[in-house]
Specification:
This protein has helices at 10-21, 38-48, 61-66, 78-87, 110-117; strands at 2-5, 27-30, 96-98, 104-106. It is α+β, with helices and mostly antiparallel strands and 119 residues long. The relative contact order is 0.22.
């Protein structure tokens, strides 16, 4: 199990605390420092069953500068979104946990963290 975190994020710290309390084995990836490649983002999106715009933090300054709210959300624009997430990792929703069964969850709630643990 791997968890993508920003240590400054309270949701990330909460998820780590719950994983620790449950005695889970996991690897921490500080994705702002160890930036995911476009291929890694594609893989996580597949595991999540989501599109890149579904995991984009559109309220971030970089999102506003890029005008992401105006970008099309369709197959033709998918790679553009993935490139933006890779070039601006702060735009990636957090935390993301990759579960043992090959799936992943955006673990913003205790319920989502427990869901990842049960997989």
């Amino acid at each position: 199990m791997e968890i993508w975190i920003n240590p400054a994020c309270s949701k990330c710290r909460s998820a780590i605390s719950l994983l620790d309390a449950e005695g889970a084995g996991y690897t921490v990836r500080r994705y702002l420092e160890d930036v995911p490649s476009p291929d890694e983002i594609r893989e996580v999106l597949e595991r999540l069953g989501l599109e890149p715009w579904d995991i984009t933090r559109t309220q971030e300054a970089a999102a506003k500068e890029l005008g992401l709210k105006e970008w099309p959300r369709d197959d033709g624009s998918r790679e553009r979104w993935i490139t933006a997430l890779s070039e601006h990792p702060k735009l990636i929703q957090r935390p993301i946990i990759t579960a043992e069964d090959g799936t992943a969850v955006v673990a913003r709630t205790d319920e989502a963290v427990r869901d990842a643990l049960s997989r």
